[in-house]
Amino acid sequence: MKETAKSTVEVGRDQAKEQEAHASFAQRLRERLASIVAQLTAAGALIIVFIVFSIASPDFLTFNNLFNIISQTTVTAIIAIGMTFVIITAGIDLSVGSTAALGGMLGTLIIAHTSGNWLLGVLGGTLVGGAVGLVNGLLITKARLSPFITTLGMMSVARGVVYLSTGAVAVYGLPDNFALLGEGSIDSIPIPLIILLVVAVLAYFLLTRTRLGRHTYAIGSNPEAARLSGIPIVLTLIVIYVLQGLLAGFGGMIASSRVVSGQPNFGIGLELDVIAVTVIGGASLFGGQGTIIGTLIGAFLIAVQWGCLAQH
Predict the structure, then answer these.
(1) Which of 6, 24, 173, 220 would disulfide-bridge 287, Cβ 3.0–4.6 Å?
(2) Distance between CA 246 and CA 199 in Å, rounded?
(3) Rounded to an integer, what distance in angstroms lies between the CA atom of residue 132 and that of residue 24?
(4) In this predicted structure, what is the pLDDT of residue 248?
(5) Which domain holds residue 148?
(6) How many domains does the chain have?
(7) 135 inside domain
(8) 218: in domain
(9) For residue 280, is it within any domain?
(10) For residues 174 and 118, is the Cβ–Cβ distance under 8 A?
(11) Which has the closest alpha carbon to 258: 180, 194, 197?
């Protein structure tokens, strides 16, 4: 009798595990299909908008206009790539605009005080953004504050540091070759586009081919299951927010190079554009869903509309 009862319990457990596995597979399949549909929808919209604007405006397909579109969307797209990781984990970062401004301002200050060493300035501005991301990650994981509250507070703090460190005065006197980062080209190929593609390829590899990417999706899909599976949630989230900060600081330096100056008011409202780009590209604010390709499609969809409006 005892052996029969034991075998019955074991059978019940096996059935429960099978049902849970089927449910988990069905959930992942639905999320995957939803992501594909969102990407196809955004890609179709981009193609339609591109065709319509090409017909409506004779100047839309000119080299200068397309160059401007690419240059304008680079900053937003690069920061949105980092936001993709954050949103997949069901998080949010409202401080990216202020972080980009802080990275851009402190980076240009480094350039101004190092006799025009703009490579050092770009590195410094990027690392400043990474430091902001690290603070965000620690507050979210260690202090257990919500991402919304944490990054909302950091948005004000970072903006305040920008104004205090510069007296709300723009930084000028930067070398002309600094403009190559945001406005240069190699054989008619915009350097910002090359930078964006490199960042996108690296991010795609991280998200789809590494343990970090698998853990990112797992945390966003079911954080409790991820914890029980032994995934280091704290470390993963910290790395993701640091990555977001690094990309925001780097984006701020690219924006500064476009105007060859550091602007304290840069990035106001940028976080809304970045989030919109990511969501349009198929990322879900509830977590577990999103791709780098979709984010790029969303970025260029918005950029193409801006480019057409600029023509009018």
Answers:
(1) 220
(2) 12
(3) 35
(4) 98
(5) 74-311
(6) 1
(7) yes
(8) yes
(9) yes
(10) yes
(11) 180
